[in-house]
Design brief:
The chain is mainly beta and 403 residues long. The protein is 7% helix and 47% strand. The protein has helices at residues 66-71, 124-128, 272-275, 284-287, 342-345, 367-373; strands at residues 26-30, 32-34, 37-44, 48-55, 62-63, 76-83, 90-103, 107-117, 134-137, 145-149, 154-158, 171-174, 176-178, 181-191, 194-202, 210-213, 227-234, 237-251, 254-264, 280-282, 290-295, 300-305, 320-325, 331-337, 353-357, 360-361, 381-388, 391-398. The protein is globular and about 60 Å long. The model is unreliable at 1-8 (pLDDT under 50).
Length: 403
């Protein structure tokens, strides 16, 4: 899981955006869906194929690997300060103008203004287990109607003059577009009798269901049985907070219940313009239960339930927070252990390397495979071999619900 909180900077020049070939009415852009992130392959300045996170919560497109733009002899025109994932730390980024992006045989953006991070603060690979080179602001597609089909792994762009919704079941929901980001109003139920009117950022750059800022409304706070844990990672570092389940969230006429929800406490000095009155954000783990259509220009979002609309929200049942490192991201290291969890009781510690799970060597697994094993049903016994200080140790954990 990773929470990508969109950066805040002073305004830069408007982006030119992507264009379909002349005369074309729609185009399908395939994406990879990895650990609840939408990953699009984009060609940078006609040369490098790079992987970007498609992000409705990002104000600007960001390249996190400066060595690529340096190699291409890109000129940097201005320095900006980017707010880190803890919403406190300022990171350094540079403005690069007139960058060309292509999704081959699909769309092109001939003159994009982007931000290039001074250092790779991102470290996304640790949580996703794949190379990612930056964030692609969904606003770059905003001249078109945008549909995200999570089931088929396709983003479809439609010419707005000819677009019509041809399927039943879509519900229109008003949205607000502010500084290239999408917001909606909703109702948040911590308990059945605790209802808060809230504003949420629609954030396809977050691989979680729901993140709430617990000091923005009296009825928005962690439930009594919430656990203290690392709630993710974004630009600049890890996020600490609480995790629990909330009774319900309304999305227009649709409602989702028993949602795994992450809670972060904001610094009291947080820039109000950056927050724009929001109480939290919705990420892909919840959005992915719908087919989603965005119309930036008419401030409307449509939702239609997908095949997993009523599935249970599953949370880790081991207490392990695992990251991927090494060549091919085939080395799995324990980044954290939740107190009083099965992993803590088995004396698995931060820094331990996981060498084997059950009969499978770790090298044969992906990070997603590892996480799915630790989300299996309560009572499941999982044998693990770890390496600590050069020694191999056998461990056994019995999975159970933590929230």
């Amino acid at each position: 899981m990773l929470a990508l909180l969109c950066p805040t900077v002073s305004p830069i020049a408007a982006q030119g955006g992507f264009f379909m070939p002349a005369g074309q009415k729609q185009v399908d852009i395939p994406f990879d869906y990895i650990n609840n992130f939408i990953i699009i392959t984009v060609r940078f300045n006609g040369v490098f194929p790079l992987k970007f996170i498609f992000d409705t919560g990002a104000e600007h497109t960001i390249l996190s690997k400066r060595e690529i733009s340096d190699l291409m002899r890109v000129t940097y025109e201005k320095e900006f300060r980017v707010k880190g994932s803890d919403l406190k730390t300022d990171l350094v980024a540079y403005l690069a103008r007139r960058i060309r992006f292509d999704i081959p045989d699909k769309v092109s953006a001939p003159r994009e203004d982007i931000l290039v991070l001074q250092e790779d603060y991102f470290r996304f690979e640790e949580y996703a287990g794949i190379d990612v080179h930056g964030i692609l602001s969904a606003n770059a597609f905003s001249k078109y109607i945008i549909r995200i089909n999570y089931d088929r792994r396709i983003i479809t762009l439609y010419d707005r003059e000819s677009f019509k919704i041809r399927e039943d079941g879509y519900e229109p929901i008003p949205i607000e577009v502010y500084r290239n980001k999408i917001y909606m109003n909703s109702r948040f139920y911590l308990r059945p009798d605790s209802i808060a009117p809230i504003k949420l950022l629609i954030d396809t750059g977050a691989g979680l269901p729901l993140l709430m800022f617990s000091n923005t409304h009296p009825l928005v706070h962690p439930p009594d049985n919430a656990i203290t844990t690392n709630i993710g990672m974004g630009l600049g570092g890890y996020l600490e907070g609480f995790t629990g389940r909330v009774f319900q969230l309304d999305l227009g006429k649709f409602s989702e219940k028993n949602i795994v929800t992450y809670f972060q406490t904001l610094d009291s000095t947080m820039n109000e313009e950056y927050l724009h009155g929001r109480n939290g954000l919705i990420g892909n783990t919840l959005l992915g239960r719908f087919s989603v259509i965005f119309d930036y220009q008419n401030s409307t979002m449509w939702l239609k339930p997908a095949r997993n609309f009523r599935n249970e929200f599953v949370y880790d049942r081991s207490g392990l927070i695992v990251i991927a490192t090494g060549p091919g991201f085939g080395k799995f290291v324990v980044q954290g252990v939740i107190d009083n969890s099965p992993a803590a009781e088995a004396d698995i510690r931060k820094g331990d390397e996981i060498k084997r799970i059950g009969i499978a060597p770790a090298a044969f697994l992906s990070l997603g495979d590892v996480q799915r094993i630790f989300q299996k049903k309560p009572g499941k016994k999982v044998k693990i071999i770890i390496k600590r200080d050069g020694k191999r140790m056998k461990k056994r954990i019995v999975l159970r619900d933590l929230i």
